TrEMBL record:
Name of the encoding gene: LOC123411426
Domain Bulb-type lectin: 55-184
Protein name: Receptor-like serine/threonine-protein kinase
SMART domains hit by this protein: B_lectin, S_TKc
Reaction(s) catalysed by this chain's protein: L-seryl-[protein] + ATP = O-phospho-L-seryl-[protein] + ADP + H(+); L-threonyl-[protein] + ATP = O-phospho-L-threonyl-[protein] + ADP + H(+)
Gene3D superfamilies in the record: Bulb-type lectin domain (2.90.10.10), Hepatocyte Growth Factor (3.50.4.10), Phosphorylase Kinase, domain 1 (3.30.200.20), Transferase(Phosphotransferase) domain 1 (1.10.510.10)
Transmembrane parts of this sequence: 485-510
Keyword Nucleotide-binding listed: yes
Species annotation: Hordeum vulgare subsp. vulgare
Enzyme class: transferase
Entry GO MF terms: ATP binding; protein serine/threonine kinase activity
Stored SUPFAM superfamilies: alpha-D-mannose-specific plant lectins, Hairpin loop containing domain-like, Protein kinase-like (PK-like)
Chain ranges of the Apple domain: 359-443
Localization in the cell: Membrane
Enzyme Commission designation: 2.7.11.1
Length: 829
């Protein structure tokens, strides 16, 4: 199925039309659905309708079996029809012996599906039933009586199930009040008048012609913007609106939290984040649907009532390279105007029939010590930056990449001196403006190999052949179908059909053995698979019933654990999380997407009943507090170079949180206890983002919690000012002083024997004067005695100068974290 990457819908009017024609014929050949058959079907399902009092609704206590129509080998078994005849609802055949409950457009030749109840768990073709149970729930029962899907209307006054003219399948009570509706849980399609809200999202199908869930989602993000996100097997990322442009420049707003959008019958769409569009064929007589297609593009379609085919009247992307995941990792995507994926030089394709699997390195990077860089001019890879700098030289940037074993390449923007080190090469494409060059990290020997030098051309390329047609208008009309092409597509579709049957059969067996929990996890799809949901029982087992406590902080106790895959983890039981499950999930999913070498990696979480747990990587050497202040412990004294490295790493981590993250995050509790050191004494910041989780609790409580780590808190906390990143800068300043002096600042302050705050300021003032003076002999006395004078003077001076500026009372005078990083780095050279 090399056609999977077919981007024809993008730019090619003809292809859409031809595909529709082909689908039409495919249906005709494969299912022998014809008008007469439809009539026959009507007659066949008549008894079912009869039971439901006239065919317009289902009454409580009735059920319809799938066999009521399958004798005719029909594609569909109609249970309900909307009064205007535009929609029908019933069993929909997805494979020889597998059905879903779906709503489809009766006027479309391919019976296009608008909604599906059980897209990822079809039921058997024999013995399955849709039952409007006596208890009030509408349920889909498999052949063995197990409920595959059901509405939450049991024990309510539910009285009828109807299909409305809008295409909304509803459960209503005796007074006609809507208790449940299919509009509340769309699949990949939004219909006119169906609202997009914080609770609804569209999830693409996994391939053309299939109903099962795919990798793309259209949803309201927590910043109130409508977005498109790719959730791949390894990584996930937002690809629309352009993540490089701020919301204002995209004509969006993040301030309207109502999170609401709706497509009007006329073809206009408007949402609370200011996102709007209008169909190219505005007017209210057209049947429309807004569908997130399997290729990650969002398209508005209009139905041609005479031919039964769809045409595109609006879409997000014209060039598909902006959609993430189509070409896979280590590739460059081109659209000319066909989609073309190619491996980077020195890489080979993983599976030539499926480019989304990307390419792999021919040589093992880990096996070499000696690296060099190969330039790929005018290209960039989006996301997965280890670090980002401005105004650095290309040499510095190179070193930043060499110093990190995970660095695969770096991007460099000449002129601005922008440098990005990359941990993962994904979403690659040519990027003429702004011009960035990518420098690939390669083993030194490879650069010289003759075969590599032989050609500068791409080593592999996949071409998706398609018929070209000159297109100028946006409407994609049903043209005269090209018979050969249609025939070709028909056979492709027949193959696809066979494949579906095989896959479904396979799934069937797996499905029988291992039935997943009844309801598909709501929050799951917006979270990439690196990051997952754990069950409480799983964590109980991993931590041996929470035996080994690693420590307790304001936010909760932390336990050591080992997962089934032998990964060591730290499991934190969160206290005082005041939120509902859904909010908790969305907050956590933000934290979970943050990846930086100086931040503790979050592997997942657990939310069950009252339990709220966070699972993160286990860091070998414990906290900086223990190593620095616990003179009794047998841990070695932290050497000067290690201290400087900790200062730099913590600054990098905070700079990332403040400036680079998907969402701007203030840590709010920076202190040595929250700085962990790994095997190589590289610092990793823990507990970031947790403040946000607790924010919805009472304000007073939050403040008292912060007061718990007094000594590190910025004065604005006490003044009740809004808190921003500068509060972290203050705490960082305190940590810097402690790193240099090797004692808690609070202890140091007590020596002054005055009120804490006063003494604090005094000693800072004294330190300022000393730093400004000529004579630097005091330094030897000041720096941690355990180092026996073995430290770098200029580095110590820089650290102290930064520390002093960070603890400025007036927050506007404190530097930003990225500025701190630059200053610290300037000495590393
Ligand atoms: C927010 O969006 C809603 C829905 O689109 C709209 O009715 C409301 O006026 C907007 N509020 C503001 C303050 O713009």
């Amino acid at each position: 199925m090399a056609m999977a990457l077919d981007a024809s819908l993008e730019k090619n009017q003809m292809t859409t039309a031809m595909a529709m024609a082909a689908i039409k014929s495919a249906y005709a050949y494969t299912f022998t659905t014809s008008i007469s058959l439809l009539l026959l079907l009507m007659i066949l399902v008549a008894p079912a309708n009869g039971r439901s009092h006239g065919g317009s609704y289902l009454a409580r206590g009735t059920s319809v079996s799938v066999e009521d129509g399958t004798k005719a080998a029909a594609t569909t078994v109609t249970i309900l029809a909307s009064p205007n005849g535009a929609f029908a609802c019933g069993f929909y055949r997805v494979a020889t012996n597998a059905f879903t409950i779906s709503i489809w457009f009766t006027g479309s030749s391919g019976k296009t599906v608008a909604w599906t109840a059980n897209r990822d768990a079809p039921v058997n073709g024999i013995g399955s039933r849709l039952a409007f149970r006596k208890d009030g729930a509408l349920a889909l029962l498999d052949y063995n009586g197990a409920a595959v899907w059901s509405t939450n209307t049991s024990a309510t006054g539910a009285s009828r199930v109807e299909l409305l003219d809008s295409g909304d399948l509803v459960v209503v009570d005796a007074d006609g009040r809507r208790l449940w509706g299919s509009f509340d849980s769309p699949t990949d399609t939004l219909l006119p008048s169906q609202p997009m809200t914080r609770h609804t999202k569209l999830v693409s199908a996994s391939a053309r012609g299939l109903l099962s869930s795919g990798l793309y989602t259209f949803y309201f993000d927590i910043d109130n913007q409508l977005k498109l996100i790719y959730n791949g097997p390894e990584v996930g990322s937002v690809y629309w609106p352009d993540p490089f442009i701020n919301p204002l420049a995209n004509h969006r707003t993040t301030y309207n939290s109502s999170q609401y959008g709706v497509l009007e019958q006329t073809g206009r769409f408007a949402a609370s984040d200011n996102f709007k569009f209008a169909a190219s064929d505005l007017g209210d007589r057209v049947i429309r649907r807004l569908t997130l297609d399997y290729d990650g593009n969002l398209r508005l379609y209009s139905l041609n009532a005479t031919t039964g085919s769809w045409s595109v009247s609006w879409m997000v992307f014209r060039g598909v390279c902006n959609i993430h995941g189509l070409c896979g990792k280590n590739t460059l995507c081109r659209y000319i105007p066909k989609l073309q994926c190619s491996c980077l030089r020195g890489f080979e394709v993983v599976d030539a029939s499926d480019w989304s699997k990307g390419c792999r390195r021919k040589a093992n990077l880990r096996a070499t010590q000696d690296f060099s860089f190969r330039k790929v001019a005018g290209a960039d890879f989006i996301g997965y930056d280890l670090l980002y700098w401005e105004r650095v030289t290309i040499q510095n940037c190179k070193h930043l990449c060499l110093d990190n074993a995970n660095c695969q390449a770096f991007g460099y923007r000449q002129g601005e001196g922008k440098c990005f080190t990359k941990v993962y090469l994904f979403n690659g494409k040519n990027f003429p403006n702004p011009h960035t060059d990518i420098y690939l990290k390669v083993p030194k020997g490879m650069l010289l190999s003759s075969s590599e030098l032989a050609s500068d051309k791409v080593t592999h390329a996949c071409h998706v052949h398609q018929k070209e047609a000159n297109t100028s208008s946006l409407m994609f009309q049903d043209g005269s179908s090209n018979f050969k092409f249609g025939y070709f597509l028909t056979s492709a579709l027949t193959l696809l059909f066979i494949e579906v049957v095989l896959i479904t059969a396979g799934c069937w067996i797996v499905h029988k053995r291992d039935r997943r929990p009844e309801i598909i996890d709501e929050g799951y799809t917006i979270i990439s698979s690196q990051f997952r949901i754990f069950s409480y029982r799983e964590l109980q087992k991993a931590t041996n019933c929470f035996q080994e406590e690693l420590g307790t902080g304001g936010s909760g106790a932390v336990y050591k654990g080992v997962l089934d895959d032998e990964r060591k983890v730290a499991v934190k039981k969160l206290n005082d999380v005041m939120q509902g499950e859904q909010e908790f999930r969305s907050e956590i999913s933000v934290i979970g997407r943050i990846y930086h070498m100086n931040l503790v990696r979050i592997w997942g979480f657990c939310v069950e009943k009252t339990h709220r747990l966070l699972v993160s990587e286990f860091i070998e050497n414990g906290s900086l507090a223990t190593i620095l202040f616990d003179h009794q412990s047998n841990s070695p004294v932290l050497q000067w170079s290690q201290r400087y490295n900790v200062a730099l790493g913590v600054a990098k981590g905070l700079a990332y949180l403040h400036h680079e993250c998907l969402e701007w995050i203030v840590h709010c509790d920076v202190k040595p206890e929250n700085i962990l050191l790994d095997r190589d004494f590289q610092p990793k910041i823990a507990d970031f983002g947790l403040m946000k989780l607790q924010q919805r609790g009472s304000n007073a409580q939050m403040l008292s919690k912060v007061h718990g780590t007094r000594g590190y808190i910025a004065p604005e906390w006490a003044l009740n000012l809004p808190i921003n990143g500068k509060a972290d800068v203050y705490s960082y300043g305190v940590v810097l002083l402690e790193l240099v002096k090797g004692v808690r600042l609070s202890r140091w302050v007590v020596e002054g024997e005055e009120g804490v705050e006063m003494a604090d300021i005094c000693s800072i003032e004294i330190l300022k004067e000393k730093l400004a003076g000529e004579d630097q002999s005091w330094l030897l006395e000041f720096v941690d005695h355990r180092l026996d004078g073995d430290f770098n003077h200029s580095e110590a001076i820089v650290m102290l100068k930064i520390a002093v500026s960070c603890v400025e009372e007036e927050r506007s005078r404190r530097p930003s974290m990225s500025h701190v990083v630059e200053t610290l780095l300037s000495l590393v050279e």
